[in-house]
Automatic annotation (TrEMBL):
Keyword set, alphabetical order: Cytoplasm, DNA damage, DNA repair, Methyltransferase, Transferase
Start and end residues of each Methylated-DNA-[protein]-cysteine S-methyltransferase DNA binding domain: 71-150
Domain of life: Bacteria
Enzyme kind, highest EC tier: transferase
Protein purpose: Involved in the cellular defense against the biological effects of O6-methylguanine (O6-MeG) and O4-methylthymine (O4-MeT) in DNA. Repairs the methylated nucleobase in DNA by stoichiometrically transferring the methyl group to a cysteine residue in the enzyme. This is a suicide reaction: the enzyme is irreversibly inactivated.
Catalysed conversion reaction: a 6-O-methyl-2'-deoxyguanosine in DNA + L-cysteinyl-[protein] = S-methyl-L-cysteinyl-[protein] + a 2'-deoxyguanosine in DNA; a 4-O-methyl-thymidine in DNA + L-cysteinyl-[protein] = a thymidine in DNA + S-methyl-L-cysteinyl-[protein]
Domain spans labelled Methylguanine DNA methyltransferase ribonuclease-like: 6-65
Designated name of the protein: Methylated-DNA--protein-cysteine methyltransferase
Protein EC: 2.1.1.63
Amino acid sequence: MRNGYNQFFASPLGTVEIRASAEGINGVRFCDAPREASPNQHTCEGAKQLQAYFAKELTEFSLPLCPHGTPFQQQVWQALGAVGYGDTASYADIARSINNAKAVRAVGMANGRNPIAIIIPCHRIIGSNGTLTGYAGGLERKAFLLALEQQERVCQ
């Protein structure tokens, strides 16, 4: 991979690509099939932690993250990280948490541009009325992730 590293992980939801720089992870996305990989220590640790997450052995990731985005997007993604395992929030909740209650639509746009799926938990954001809202990985994957997190934990 040019200008970075990548690795693929076979999840219960299909193939996941983990991308990283020398500084940390800058992308996690669902993809059709693995391609040529160029792993580094961050992609390897990301795959290890994602495997533990799907096995319900990990509820909080501890990885260096380096997502690329605007300062506002960075602020939103930081707020997404505060939504705990098994919990959900709305775009309005996130807007209020960043002291910008009127930025609900902008929060939605930033959420949709989150480059680090699962680890930055954009799947935990639902509609104010409790319904599932869009998810880049598809609503079926979002529903699976929410159900996984809301099941009783096996190990901790």
